UniProtKB/TrEMBL annotation, chain B:
CDD domains: PBP2_PotD_PotF_like. GO terms for molecular function: polyamine binding. It comes from the Bacteria. It is found in: Periplasm. Keywords: Periplasm, Signal, Transport. This is Spermidine/putrescine-binding protein. One of its GO terms (biological process) is polyamine transport. One of its GO terms (cellular component) is periplasmic space. Gene3D superfamilies: Periplasmic binding protein-like II. Its main location: periplasm.
Amino acid sequence: MHGSRLRKNLLTAMLLGPATAWLVVFLVLPFIAIAVFSVGERAPEGGYQAAFTLAQYANLPARATAFWNTMVLAPVGALACLLVAYPVAYYLALQAPQRWRLILLALVVIPFWTSLLMRTYAWMYVLGGRGIPALLAYIGFEDVRLINTPGAVLLGIVYGYLPLMILPIYVSLERLDRRLLEASADLGATPISTFLGVTLKLSLPGVMTGFSLVMILLLGEYLIPTLLGGGKVFFIGNALVDLFLQSRNWPFGSAIAITLVLVSVVVLIAANRISTRVSGARRVDLI
Amino acid sequence: MSKSYRDGLPISPENFVDQLMRLKRGSIGRRDFLGLTGLGIATAVMAREIGIMPTPAFAAESLGDRMSIATWPNYHDPATFENFKKDTGVAVEVNVFGSNEEMLAKLQAGASGWSLFVPTNYTISTYKKLGIIEPLEMAKLPNFDGSQEDPRFTGEGTIDAVTYAVPKNWGTTGFAVNTKKLTKPMTSWKEFWDTAMAEGDSRTMVHDYQLTTIGNALKYYGYSFNSLKQDELAKAEELLLKVKPHLFAVSSDYQPGMRAGDAWMTMCWTNDGAQLHRDIPEIAYVLGKEGGEIWTDFYAIPKDAPNKPAGYALLNYLMNPQVAVKEHLANGAPSTDARVNKLLPKEVLDNPILYPAADLLTPLEFGAAATLTDPGRAELMARFKSA
């Protein structure tokens, strides 16, 4: 009895060991380092100098615009993704013929095999003057500029993050009990009210998972606005890159990073609360 | 094993089915796995390319078989490193950077792994102060000849009569204009900024780099490119905030925009100006008559270089005028070395983008270390970008 429990504990420890070590080395330790940096000072030539001060946090308003822009971009980008992703996920889970489903799912995932940087750079050329605008000029619409506009940034975001939104929604729709749809129809509900009352409601956990996943990633996004937006709108991600790599004000960058992590946690908890409330007692799992 | 005509073939049908069945049973040898997946070939190619396994004939023991260099995009003739490997057996891994600050950040963090890197003039005193670089042992660089260097460009490599870095090439920071779209001839930074808010509206780019963007805004008022004076910076900020809504982009990656015709005017470095003009003749390169920036890129060796002997060997190799001339033809930046200038073709030396008239060069200023590390200018840039 005693021996088997010991063996079980040992097994648990062995199974959890690698993941725990991973988290400690790549999440907890860096986080502690950043937290220590954030109460330090910028050395005269840049970098970090040991100190204990909250001056970096007091200076946060200097990046208020960047925070504000990010707080707008993240939910708007996630919402745009959701509007495009839901119909796709719905088709994949409920409409697509069984034998096509796997292939279609693979097509959703395959772009992920290429780095986001390369795919975004490709969009620069598609939207640039010798891409779509050249085609438009050919049919008579001269001097259309697509690149470095808010629309281009939104397009890049939807394109880049779409799979992350489609997959969780697909999973929750796929698990949907079809008999509920039949029951709803039998009881006289119109297709629209069946969709709103049954399908949408039961897929909400997937929607919230996708939404929070995309939104959290967008909180740190800087590549797409830089490449497709011309770097004219400043996000927290851009502020961090500049502070760590350009002006090398590591303590201030660290204070912003810590604040961003705290904001992400608050967003996550809020998203969880909301989805638990709307979809009954169900818990939402991140993937 | 018997010799058969099939030995040279990748795999026969019977063999393939055999292998497949073994795979299905879950047994496969390492060699089979490498062969089947193509990973074996990949490893062999990579080993040859990056020198995990040196070619014995060329391996010089004291130099090791590999080293790493940090430099700028499109800055070298790729053949240079291949030839260096042929001569010495040392494979060179090239790391490309976007800014001096990124290089500095990496070196400050430690263990960069570089045995040679290419800093710009204004960073060298900072590197020395931080103890990241050490004096060069000139005896190991017989190909370098200080008497042939133009002293205007080489000064900042030497601190208190000790040489920490030797020059690669120099250049200027001006602006490129698509003269088909913006036909009015321009000669000054004042015209650059005024045009950006008028005919060049939503077609103008400025660098995502505080040194040049703020520096050239200061030039609008005739102030020093390196000014750290509060009132002068305040004026520059006012101009930048006024121009911001009219810009096409704040980015140092301006070639794609200019080439596609989306952007008509951009702040521009010599070598990009030369490349743009070479491919699209209507793109002109202008030096502001008020002045602006002149720069020199140097070679230096980090104190913690993992392979110093190879770093010195490559640096000495690059200082050979016959090698250097090919580098200049490839990257398009002008040389500091009189021996190299003698070897360059006449059309290069006569190209006013590369070798501007003396009266245009006179007012130009070298960027200063204090300008680059000034926190006030960094914050100004952040306010400009977030406006």
